[in-house]
What we know:
By secondary structure, this protein is of the alpha/beta class. It contains five helices and seven strands; from the N terminus they run βαβαββααβββα.
Amino acid sequence: MKCYLPDEQAMAEFGGQLAQAIDAGGVVFLLGDLGMGKTTLSRGVLRGCGHTGSVKSPTYTLVEPYDTPAGAVYHFDLYRLSDPEELEYLGIRDYFSDDALCLVEWPEKGAGILPQPDLEIRLSLSGPGRELELTAKTQKGQRMVDILNK
Ligand code: ADP
Ligand code: MG
């Protein structure tokens, strides 16, 4: 599934729709270069989960936990991770529990340690906006895509 998102607001709104398409957590990989809108999309998902406070980019902390009305959300940004093994010290197994939603920016940096995603979202430049491409990797991910397609 592909779609064109013309501006920041459309990106955040798409995040809100994605939040509605998730029923019991899951792992979402956010792929795309710096500045493609991964954090904007994550902010939209968190808003859609009912989080009203601020959403900061977890560039330095690697992970930011949120206790939202829709359940636990962990927002990762692994850009600064130098070795996937560091994730073991963060105790990431606790984060990737069945009912938590994990949004992961720069999952490439955690290769070999991160679990497989349910959904991959690839963001790229397209004119003044962004193209978003969704790929379901599990049945849970496919259910999310089916709901988004409706
Ligand atoms: P990333 O986390 O991928 O590095 P950010 O979410 O921080 O990217 O966004 C970088 C910039 O891109 C921000 O200025 C944001 O407003 C802008 N942006 C986000 N989505 C879109 C879009 N669909 N079209 C145009 N600009 C966008
Ligand atoms: Mg970011």
